[in-house]
Amino acid sequence: MAGNGIDENCDGVDGATGVANPLEGELTVYPNPTSGQLHVTYSGGELLRLEIFDGLGHLLRSREVRHSARFSLTELPVGVYLLRTTSVASGRFVVGRLVVSR
């Protein structure tokens, strides 16, 4: 996820390394890393499904949102998780890394 302060592919740039965002609007996830509350905002009008997975691929949370949402992640252990954001209408999705730290 561009702008999250993490250089995902170790090239010295905090930016996207794949194809353009397949979603209609701009998706913002902050803070990342998080110590408890995660905020998600989306500028598009389509309905999104947000899913948080652990390192083994187990679905931990799923929620549908249109513009913004907050997740409380205080009960999750410190670690790295995946956030998959899917357009409910088109099925297009993006996946980003989410870090929980204390």
From TrEMBL:
<dbReference type="InterPro" id="IPR026444">
    <property type="entry name" value="Secre_tail"/>
</dbReference>
<feature type="domain" description="Secretion system C-terminal sorting">
    <location>
        <begin position="29"/>
        <end position="88"/>
    </location>
</feature>
<protein>
    <recommendedName>
        <fullName>Secretion system C-terminal sorting domain-containing protein</fullName>
    </recommendedName>
</protein>
<dbReference type="Pfam" id="PF18962">
    <property type="entry name" value="Por_Secre_tail"/>
</dbReference>
